[in-house]
């Protein structure tokens, strides 16, 4: 007997989107615990479960955000360049196609939804700064990994991140994963007492979506299946050999 189909998995996958404006309504500690409790069932290589997450809210979140805002004012050059991350490179530099175009498209759509004209650097910087308030979500999550771990564990953390985002949907909550926090890894580390042996990989905003906010009405486009998937059900003819 095969197992029964899970009823809501596809709906949660299709409905998840990055939310960048939230209602002020708080999220109970119990709900956050339920989300993380579900996410710990994420698979990982040889069940290593390498993820760590710090849940930040209330005065601690305010302090973290204020500290980063202060450093943003003092060190505007930190956000120059393609790489969002500080301790690791998220993107190739220079970014190649088709990735560059996809990145630009979602950026332009987002700025347009916020009424920001192309080339308005001050407004773009202010908009980017909303990352460092967790987009006003009541809860911020910071994800870390031990520095000694390899790429495999980063795959595992990615699966864990998506598991948190999908579990959040189950409770009517929304999220935005945020590589942006990695740029201020030193500040995050200090404020949240993260040991030097851990890399600050990314953050995540968590809360109840404000669906009246125009920024939440954009949907990032996806490439069609045939651009990334290939089906092989016959032996491939290789150059110089004949396939019987
Ligand atoms: C690991 C990771 C880091 C991200 N970092 C940021 C970020 O710093 N700021 C932001 O606004 N969105 C961030 N995003 C959201 C992406 O821009 C978003 O997932 C993508 O455009 C697809 O849109 P969707 O999530 O709405 O489907 C991040 C996503 C991932 C998976």
TrEMBL record:
Cofactor(s) required, per the database record: FMN
Domain Nitroreductase, residue spans: 14-208
Report the domain of life of the source organism: Bacteria
InterPro entries under this entry?
A: Nitroreductase, Nitroreductase-like
| Name of the featured protein | Nitroreductase
What organism does the record attribute this protein to? Chitinasiproducens palmae
Q: Which family does it belong to?
A: Belongs to the nitroreductase family.
According to the UniProt entry, its GO molecular function terms are: oxidoreductase activity
Pfam families per the record?
Nitroreductase
Q: Which UniProt keywords apply?
A: Flavoprotein, FMN, Oxidoreductase
